[in-house]
Design goal:
Layout (H helix, E strand, L loop, with lengths): L1 H5 L3 H15 L1 H32 L17 H11 L1 E2 L3 H14 L3 E2 L3 E7 L4 E13 H14 L3 E9 L7 E13 L4
Parallel strand pairs: 1-6
Antiparallel strand pairs: 2-4, 3-4, 4-6, 5-6
Helix pairs in contact: 5-6
């Protein structure tokens, strides 16, 4: 008789479980599943919470072992970096050609510009001012100006003036004033 008790009739057991679940109903079954899942999640997270508490209990590293920020650059280093970015005076005309090439790529009409060179003795920086009258779509003119500044990081866009005769015109006339900041060529 002891051998008969050890053998479980699996199909009969599954049938009894199924009947019990049908008697409980769907909401009760969902509640039971959620409770079991919650208990399993709690049992899984409890050891991790203990490990996190141990980690948080450790003291912070001493300030001497922390990474320190590098010291700020000196005035001479800043000045050297400034002069390093400047364009070279001997290539000023080539920079004007770059502007004309960019205007052609942007499909805007670029008339002959006005140019003025000057030199500041205190900073030892030459400037080359370029006034360009252009004509084309508004967006193309802005793209041309921004592309010019990207191509020549030593340039500034000092002035932009737009003019449109009629509100229905798709093209506008503009006057752009760039200034190139240049250094003398190194000997």
């Amino acid at each position: 008789m002891a051998g008969a008790m050890n053998q479980v009739n699996l199909p009969a057991l599954l049938l009894r479980v199924r009947i019990a679940l049908l008697r409980l109903g769907v909401p009760a079954c969902v509640a039971i599943v959620l409770c079991v899942a919650g208990i399993a999640a709690w049992a899984w997270l409890l050891p991790q919470r203990a490990a996190q508490a141990q980690l948080m209990a450790k003291p912070l590293p001493a300030p001497s072992t922390l990474v320190t920020a590098p010291p700020p650059p000196s005035a001479n280093q800043n000045l050297a970096a400034f002069y390093e970015v400047l364009g070279e005076k001997r290539y000023a005309e080539q920079q004007v050609k770059v502007l004309f090439d960019l205007a052609a790529k942007a499909n805007i009409t670029l008339y002959q510009g006005e140019y003025k060179a000057s030199y500041d003795k205190a900073s030892r920086v030459s400037t080359y001012q370029i006034n360009l009258p252009v004509k084309g779509p508004y967006q193309s003119i802005w793209q041309f100006a921004m592309q010019g500044l990207r191509e020549m990081p030593f340039a500034s866009l000092d002035e932009v003036a737009f003019r449109r005769d009629n509100i229905a015109d798709t093209t506008v006339e503009a006057r752009l004033r760039f200034t190139l900041y240049l250094k003398d060529a190194e000997p």
